[in-house]
Amino acid sequence: MRLAMVKLGVLGSGKGSNFAALLAGISSGQIPASVEIVLSDNAGAGILDLARNANIPAGTIDESRFKTRLSDDIEASVAERLKAANVELLVLAGYMRMVKTPLLEAFPHRMINIHPSLLPQFPGLEAWKQALQAGATETGCTVHYVDDGMDTGEIIAQERVAILPGDSAASLHARIQEAEHRLLPRVIAEICAEIAKL
Prior knowledge:
Elements: E1 6-12, H1 17-27, E2 33-40, H2 46-53, E3 58-60, H3 72-84, E4 89-92, H4 101-106, E5 111-115, H5 127-133, E6 138-145, E7 155-162, H6 169-197
Parallel strand pairs: 1-2, 1-4, 2-3, 4-5
Antiparallel strand pairs: 5-6, 6-7
């Protein structure tokens, strides 16, 4: 039996490599979903180009007042844009701002994030550099539900990545991203399968 297609929304701030992995998972049939809208707080983000090239509606979030979060009114407008696109699951793929009440209330237990560490270790920015500086022997990536904390939401799944002798921040980050590109599509596929049964 073919599962119903779950409607996804994606928020991102960067080049969009996890979004590209998501699109590949949808194209291959691994993920029973369609991406309905992509929004970015960075007008020059590569994720917007990827979306437009895939004929997916893409837009920007204009926020000049704060660097690490959205104003409540702007976040509420983002929630409305996502709801208007009938989004059922919201994916944060390299989105660099904290999420607050408007989005949390709009997508309760329907918003996930990918983070480049084995949470709860090394939350926040540049987690791979944090791991190196701490002398850790392994790190990895985590997909978790989003709450109002800094990478504190319920953990869904993780993949471990060994830290090798001589690793640089760049080489470690590259291997973590490879793990992210495996983990995120798998988790999204599992969540979409559950949503489709409801």
